From TrEMBL:
Gene3D superfamilies: P-loop containing nucleotide triphosphate hydrolases
Taxonomic source organism: Zoarces viviparus (Viviparous eelpout)
Compartment(s) of residence: Nucleus
Record keyword Iron-sulfur present: no
UniProt-listed Pfam families: HHH_XRCC3_RpoA, Rad51
Residue ranges occupied by any RecA family profile domain in the UniProt entry: 74-255
Protein family membership: Belongs to the RecA family. RAD51 subfamily.
GO function terms (MF aspect): ATP binding; ATP-dependent DNA damage sensor activity; four-way junction DNA binding
Signal peptide start-end: none
Protein name (Swiss-Prot/TrEMBL): RecA family profile 1 domain-containing protein
UniProt keyword annotations, A-Z: ATP-binding, DNA damage, DNA recombination, DNA repair, DNA-binding, Nucleotide-binding, Nucleus
Amino acid sequence: MNWDQLELHPRIIAAVRRAGLRSLPDVLSVSGPDLQRLTSLSGSDVQQLLTAAANACRRHPPITALELHRRSESGLRLGVGCPVLDQLLRGGLPVGGITELSGQSGAGKTQLALQICLSVQYPTQYGGLDSGAVYICTEDSFPIRRLQQLIRNQSLLRSDVPPTLISSLQFSDHVYVEHAADLDSLQVCLSRRVPLLLARGLVRLLVVDSLAALFRSEFQAADWLERTKQLITFSSTLRHLSLEFTTPVLCINQVTDVFSSDDSLSQLSSSVSPALGLVWANQVMVRLMMRRLQATVTHGDQSSALRRLEVVLAPHLAQGGRDLAVWREGVRGVMSS
């Protein structure tokens, strides 16, 4: 839907575009007061905008996450390289839409993301997409040594793949690494370099690690309005890339503490939730959470802290989780005894 097709004053349309709101769902996902702050429009103007957007959506309904899932190449998935976890995800990551992987430091998020960067390079019959990956680092340097270790041990992790096929794949040649130290460089990367790689067919997976780092470092509490504008622009760009190129987008996210009162003990207890709030949550198709547990498991001469991957929300998945561990060869699910 083109904004010019709505029966709105040009001043309102101009304010919407300045705020970085690119689609009707972007407008309808923001509350009235927040929309007024984002656009600097009056209350009556915002009401006209919301009414026009709602009427347009009734005439031209936006694609829901479930419909997007149904349309995405007949349910084509990107496997994560582990049958236990692929079973949880009904085949892996959907090729259309944003998948968020959140969790505390040390939960294993980057480990799983690296493994998926190798999985995408396999043919479709082995859960891949026959293409490469672009990995955008926003805070830490790219873990190249760990990637090389995973590559050396692919034959141990992927016993389902013929060894001759594994040896023929030049894994490191098809993982493109970008570094974005600030939001401007991230936007340049997403608007110029990444589309070029996608259009040439060199990659079919986009990983952003980590999502919240730049938004936490660049904005103070008083800058929430500009932060929201930037977040909407960023998420719209990711969704556009995913839909245009039928490409899985995996965003690693940090978590924030959530405190609640326990009346029985008159104390505060703490849990965690994904960072960046409701504006970002509305852009995500699949939300996964990784947790590090207290238990330890062994595998040959290796030991690993037990982790758990949980489905928090997804239109096509049941809520639930699987235990996993991180070994030299990669991330494997741990079957319950």
